[in-house]
Amino acid sequence: MLTIDTFTSTLDRYLQPSQVQQVRKAYLFAEDAHNGQIRKSGEPYITHPLAVATILADMHMDHQCLMAALLHDVIEDTGVLKHTLSREFDNQVAELVDGVSKLGHIVDSRIEAQALNFQKMTLAMSKDIRVILVKLADRLHNMRTLDALDGERRRRIARETLEIYAPIANRLGMNNIRIEFEELGFRALYPLRSTMIEKAVRKARGNRKEVVANIRESLVACLKREDIKADVLGRQKHLYSIYDKMRSKRKSFYEIMDVYGFRIIVTDVDTCYRTLGAIHNLYKPVAGRFKDYIAIPKANGYQSLHTTLFGMHGLPIEIQIRTHEMEMVANNGIAGHWLYKSNEENNSHARTREWMKGLLEIQQSAGNSLEFIENVKTDLFPDEVYIFSPRGDIYDLAQGSTPVDFAYTVHTDIGNTCIACRIDRRLAPLSATLESGQTVEIITATGAQPDPAWLNFVITGKARSGIRHALKHQQQSESVSLGRRLLEQTLAGYNTSLDDIPAEKLKTVLKERRINTLDQLLSEIGLGNQMAYVIARSLLADGKETDQIEHHGPLAILGSEGLVVSYAKCCKPIPGDPIIGHISAGRGIVIHSDTCRNMHDLRDKPNEVMSVRWDLTVNQEFTVELRLELEHVKGIIAIVASTITNEDANIERINMIEKDAQIGIVNVVIAVKDRIHLAQVIKRLRLIKAINRIIRVRG
Fold this sequence. Notes:
This protein is an alpha+beta fold.
């Protein structure tokens, strides 16, 4: 069993004697604090923090980090206070321990607790990256000793490790820890699948030995002829990566195992490219399967040349070419900053700080801890695309990202005011999927706001969080404005206005409803959670006669109210249609056609229905659905589409339903300005001889 003497003897190799003494002092403090506590395995609890510290010592972490590892559970499990650690050791050690410790208060659910704790840890690691290194080492030892737990806890911890901690290790470039997380998590979560794949791999490796040896021999001979000094290593496929590829790429086990992987490690970058040329002369490269991660490193600092070749007998061979330093970064990632005592901040460390900055931005704009952790999970994608700005700056984004994701990656303000984009100098939709190497230019406009529809296609956490944050502010502003209009209109019926209401009376009404400010009250009215006429009567209760109301006409709908006024999908009203308003709690006002069937039952509920009209200045586009019954004529759909667009109406959706061999039904959804505009479109469509009937669909 590992002892403190064995542990500290390994520290003498790279720490000063005074620092080793401080680490020993932290151990004795932790041993005393955990005295009498036993792990599920039956071992004294102190064996766990000592094992965590040993993992970090292998990375050559500094003495403060090792002290924090030894003390990482004392705040959470023994009742020792943070200021006690500050007094006994120093503030940095206390901050590290507090950053790893879970929150003390009780929350309603385990999922919420996980989200809150991760949010707390994120804030701590943005100040000191060593927090996450201690947490990863803590989780690694817990995974190594997972067998001591019951089945349900074992599966929960394994799933959490695969969903969060393995991707974080990958994001930090710590490949060795990521692989161990995935292997241990896979075995705990899917023991049967793990066992079956392991048996199949052992069997396949036996059959592959001769082929691997022959390929390696030919690679070594090729490099020797070119006078290139290199280490040629066969790459083993790990169980979880095999399982993940089988599941995500829908490939059979033998399809994955038929690919032979090798790693070639050389002395410098120039030799990497010389080696690439040599092996491309030896075996024919597969088109489109070359990636240069040396010129454009991955987000976690990973650098290497990747190429796929047609080997002997047509066997596919995957080759990775890198330097010894790149190999170190690939395996240890950010931990290499301490492991190799680099005086300069390495590439991995700088990129990690950028990632931390992004996490803080997501945290600030997230509505709650659950939304935050959801956005972080989507941000931990293993694959990236590399996009150029018009100035030549390179940005790495998750696979499947869109121009909107790119806009928010550059800056939140650019994302919020984005209205269009150019990809490789050509106008493109904001929902287009980006590919590596493209140049993206974002077109912005002052006063523009995010479209809620963007949430249907953005994939990065920063974009999703930024859009939601902006929409909340937008809805708040619009609901206050609409609430003021509704209340002022109601008060005008009593020949008064909001400015005439005494401040004391307003305070009383706010207090009765447990609302803090006038803006909050107006927002509640705008969202439909409070009724304008009820508030008006309360404000005037001691003054004017509130039973006598002078009606000043229906509320004018401008069409630009935004998120607090929506248009019913059941009847699709447009300017010119007689309309009625339904006050829907939390949504504001929903506008229906006066004849809409869904409003029949609500007309007897005056609290939920209000009189509205179209404003004369309304200048928006509204959706209408037309159903065309037509004869099958060659090119008829193109004729219909051309006729509609010639009348300056946008087609949003079009689909055809076969009625019989001669007649078909076409449903077309278009955007028009008003009933006059719609009438012009229908008039033009009636001139097409093949169209027999045109019906406006309402519900």
